[in-house]
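Format notes (please read before filing issues)

Several people have asked whether sequences and structure tokens are stored in separate files. They are not. Every record keeps both together, in the order shown below: the sequence lines, then the token lines. Line labels are part of the format and must not be stripped during preprocessing.
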Amino acid sequence: MADYYNEKNWYVVHTYSGYENKVKTNLEKRIKSMGMEDKIFRVVVPTEIEVEVKDGKHKEKEKKTFPGYVLVEMLMTDDSWYVVRNTPGVSGFIGSYGKGSKPTPMHPWEVDEILERIENAEVGIAIDFGIGDTVRIIEGAFEDHIGEVIGIDKETMKVTVEVLMLGRQTEVELGISHVERA
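Then the structure lines:
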């Protein structure tokens, strides 16, 4: 048996689709009720906040980074392995080869990268238009003009739209919330 079974490591648990948070809750309850706090330490559902812009309105929503997966920090013993595997909603461990074989833990750099992304939760933006799409300007001096998206800067939340003005194509920079798909 490899040395990593004697150390605290992170493992990836596969869940039924859409059950990630339920598995986290169930597993945390089982850890307490079965006295496994000294073997199973953390259960994480990696998520990020995404700003969705629809009809000119910003709406924040939480998006799972790895749908169908939960990360578990634990000592891999027969008992802890049993508790996690038999939690409702869990379909198995990733990196487990064959019936009865224990899984391989994640590499430390993988875990560090994921946990850092969660801690520094960068807000992503989901918009319902892209470069080349036709949009309608819904606010400001160019309200009701129709144009083509030629650039999107998610960092500054700006969109560059090419509109026909006085018989010429003109580039206009607007806030993402000032346009909608035409």
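For reference, the curators noted about this record: The mean pLDDT is 86. The first strand starts at residue 8 and ends at 15.
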